[in-house]
Design goal:
about 525 residues, alpha/beta, Alkaline Phosphatase, subunit A, two-stranded antiparallel sheet, 22 helices, elongated, Sulfatase_N
């Protein structure tokens, strides 16, 4: 590499300044506009100290910076933070093990290529600076320690490994109550559970988001609206949110417990019973329908191994479309999916056994969403970037779905659950979303529930016992998994200990993780 950048020295220095400004605004969730003042300050320092052109230049043409690897790791962190807002190491580990093929994030792949190129240019310029400026050769040997110590990605890896040496690794395990049903009603109700991708209850704040949540507010008037559902660690992506709400436990990744680290998972949380297991044993016919691929992030494996009779994703549903080309990068649009869900409910209603239908939308998938054609007809043109348009689309389609089932008399003796799968990841409304406290959506109606609002400090693990009691089942001490029924006086873990304690315990323990991933002796994975 040449050690001379005669005409381009200031361009190179400015490029480094922009990279530093971008990194700072990403880490601290600031507008990228603030990268410009950082750049100005950087250039002033470069001018004052003649960076890259010292008065007494000692060139080391073969010098390699010690901090190249730490800088590269920072670029990986910045890519993840820019994509998802908060870097969830558990999600990264789980997706690498469960599979990330057949996802709709083609745009992020392009962004990743841009990040890679940008990072390589930055590393090249930094190497030039170290080779021509003796002061930077000395400074960067101290800088490398800073880069390693404060990289959130490496900090997260350190915390993940802490469970190996934790003195008490079973605090959560001791509070886990294996899900059971002690008694059931004479006429068990059907269950319709709709997961709305990233459609968190925070959007109900009209001062920040206008009327985008209005249709869901209207649905909430039918029954019980639960407020205060926080997001604890290892529940912040779709599969994790589903497992938390159906199994009463966070999805702590298999990690070192997985025998074949580089092989895809062959089973998902085989060591615990979930809602599907409990209902299947009591004669329920269970169906899952989602517009995205079942192969992504272990969703298909989870449902097939936990009591579901029919599991349908993009692979099975796309051939049923009237217009085969009406697909987005993830799969089916939600108007198509919910039409098929109505058809499935009609079929299930004709059968003698009770049923459970679980469906998952994707209209509001970040960063911009995939609003359906019917939403465009209802709301007007979509600018391609406004996630609030997509949130409103999800609410309108959900309300339309419920009202259609009601008109056809398909909601008799049925509990309906409308919920977000997790809090939204980084999207075009990120600054407004992160400006205040956030909560998940959870609405239940039907089966005799009295309309009201219940506000409690809780999380998605509390949904399992709450759903069971709303269906009329009796569970031991109003508890299942780590959750407590929000319809009962039983205290939740968050009410007792707070979210910080629960998250800290999850980072430093292994006993509950072992329960999730290791079937009891003699059992085969479900």
């Amino acid at each position: 590499m040449s050690t001379r950048l005669p005409a381009g020295r200031w361009w190179a220095i400015a490029y480094l300044g922009l990279c530093i400004g971008y990194a700072m605004t990403t880490v601290f969730s600031l507008s990228h506009f603030w990268a410009l003042p950082v750049l100005v300050l950087w250039l002033m320092l470069a001018w004052e100290f003649r960076w890259g052109a010292p008065a007494h230049q000692v060139v080391r043409p073969r010098a390699w910076p010690w901090s190249l690897l730490p800088l590269a790791l920072w670029w990986i962190y910045l890519f993840l933070a820019d994509s998802y807002g908060k870097v969830d190491l558990g999600a990264v580990i789980f997706h690498l093990q469960a599979g990330i093929a057949d996802n709709g994030s083609g745009g992020r792949i392009f962004v990743g290529m841009v990040y890679t190129l940008t990072g390589l240019i930055m590393l090249g310029i930094f190497t030039w600076l170290v080779r021509v400026d003796q002061r930077w050769r000395l400074l960067e040997r101290v800088l490398v320690l800073f880069l390693l110590a404060f990289n959130p990605l490496l900090f997260g890896i350190t915390l993940e490994g802490a469970s190996i040496v934790a003195e008490d690794g079973a605090w959560l395990e001791r509070r886990y109550v294996p899900p059971q049903i002690e008694a059931m009603p004479e006429n068990p109700p059907n269950l319709i559970y709709l997961y709305m991708e990233s459609t968190e209850g925070t959007y109900a704040d009209e001062s920040r988001f206008g009327d985008v949540y209005a249709d869901l507010e209207t649905l909430g008037q039918r029954g019980v609206v639960f407020k205060g559902l926080r997001q604890i660690a290892n529940t912040g992506w779709t599969t994790a949110g589903m497992i938390a709400s159906q199994c009463g436990t966070p999805l702590i990744p298999a990690g070192l417990l997985h025998d074949s680290q580089l092989e895809p998972l062959e089973y998902v949380v085989p060591g615990v019973d979930c809602l599907g297991d409990l209902l299947s044993r009591r004669g329920y016919n269970l169906t899952f329908m989602g517009g995205a691929s079942l192969d992504f992030a272990g969703k298909g494996l989870f449902y097939k191994q936990h009591g579901f009779d029919t599991v349908l994703g993009r692979e099975a549903l796309s051939p049923r479309l009237d217009d085969p080309g009406y697909l987005n990068s993830w799969g089916l649009y939600d108007d198509s999916l919910l039409d098929m869900a109505v058809q499935r409910v009609r079929t299930l209603q004709r059968q003698p056994e009770p049923f459970g239908l679980f469906a998952a939308t994707l209209s509001a998938h970040p960063p911009y969403g995939y609003p359906a054609r019917r939403c465009r007809n209802n709301q007007g043109a979509f600018d391609g970037k406004n996630i609030l348009y997509s949130i409103k689309c999800t609410g309108w389609l959900t309300r339309r779905f419920v009202e259609r089932l009601e008109r056809e008399g398909l909601l008799d003796n049925t509990l309906v659950v409308i919920a977000s799968d997790h809090l939204a990841m980084k999207n075009s409304a990120w600054q407004a979303l992160t400006a205040g406290e956030r909560e998940n959506t959870l609405i239940m109606f039907g089966n005799g529930l009295e309309p009201r609002v219940i506000e409690r400090e809780s999380s998605m693990v509390d949904v399992l016992p709450t759903v069971l009691e709303a269906m009329g089942f009796e569970v031991p001490a109003n508890r299942a998994g780590l959750g407590a029924s929000l319809l009962s006086p039983a205290q939740t873990l968050l009410e007792r200990h707070g979210i910080e304690t629960i998250d800290a315990r999850m980072r430093s323990e292994s006993a509950l993780q072992q329960r999730l991933w290791k079937p009891s002796s003699g059992e085969s994975p479900r």
